[in-house]
Specification:
It is a single chain. The protein contains 3 helices and 3 strands; from the N terminus they run αββαβα. With about 80 residues, it is an alpha+beta fold. The protein has one domain. Strands 1-2-3 form a 3-stranded antiparallel sheet. A hairpin with a 5-residue loop joins β1 and β2. The relative contact order is 0.17. This is DUF2188 domain-containing protein.
């Protein structure tokens, strides 16, 4: 799958983040809104990065878990 398609899919899955791939090939995401004090205390980050799309998804899921967020399309509770 092309990196453009990966970018589009991840952006659809995580609309509260801006997703991009750097010229060096790393995958990045940054939040659209500032973190609350509670989110910072929970270990949330404004910007995250990974080696590949799957790694970025893992990081995004971890950030959702820390922030107590869920995808807008997820039918059930967030994974543990």
């Amino acid at each position: 799958m092309s990196f453009d398609r990966h970018l589009a899919e991840i952006a659809r899955e995580y609309p509260q983040w801006t997703i991009w791939r750097s010229d060096a090939g790393r995958w990045w995401a940054t939040r659209h809104h500032p973190l609350s004090a509670a989110q910072r205390d929970a270990g949330c980050a404004m910007t995250i990065d990974a080696d590949d799309p799957d790694g970025l998804r893992d990081q995004l899921r971890d950030q959702e878990r820390r922030a107590g967020e869920q995808h807008h399309w997820r039918a059930g509770p967030a994974p543990p």
